[in-house]
Design brief:
The chain has about 160 residues and is of the alpha/beta class. The chain has seven helices and seven strands, in the order βαααβαβαββββαα.
Length: about 160
């Protein structure tokens, strides 16, 4: 994971739930690539074929509400989504995102679909390169950045912990 991300925005509104992200009938696999083929199938047809690696999701409030399944995060990652920026997140979606290594950034940014934004994960800055506007967010604590850079919670805890006396 890089300290700075750059990508094209896909803008969504408030209360995007996990069934909108990945409809329940496609949860027969945990494979991120297969799941990604069905992203937003019912609410934004064509999304799965048009999204590109590095693209970003920008939502309103309560992004990822609904079920606690990890499939929604896995599907976004399978499509190459580099981060999700939203005014607020459902807590379980936020936790699943960090655990699986998809940065979930709480920030209310002015942007529209198609804008290009750059996100500085360490400095807590987002720049909308299309409009020139800048936004700040609370940067992740160092251990969360380390967890994201290592590839998620499971890879983070696989490393031995050294203790000093």
């Amino acid at each position: 994971m890089k300290d700075a991300l750059r990508g094209r925005v896909w803008r969504f509104g408030d209360d995007v739930d996990t069934d909108q992200i990945i409809p329940a009938e496609y949860l027969v696999t945990g494979d991120p690539k297969e799941l990604s083929r069905h992203l937003f199938k019912k609410t934004s047809p064509g999304f799965a074929s048009d999204v590109r690696p590095g693209d970003m999701i920008v939502g309103g409030k309560n992004f990822g509400c609904g079920s606690s399944r990890e499939h929604a995060v896995r599907a976004l990652m399978g499509a190459g989504i580099s981060c999700v920026i939203s005014k607020s997140f459902a807590r379980i979606f936020y936790r699943n995102s960090i655990n699986l290594c998809l940065p979930a950034i709480e920030c209310d940014i002015g942007t529209k679909s198609g804008d290009i934004v750059e996100v500085d994960l360490v400095g807590g800055q987002i720049q909308n390169l299309s409009s020139g506007r800048r936004f700040s967010f609370q940067p992740f604590p160092p251990f969360v950045l380390s967890m994201i850079k290592k590839g998620g919670l499971m890879k983070y805890v696989e490393e031995p912990i050294s203790c000093t006396k």
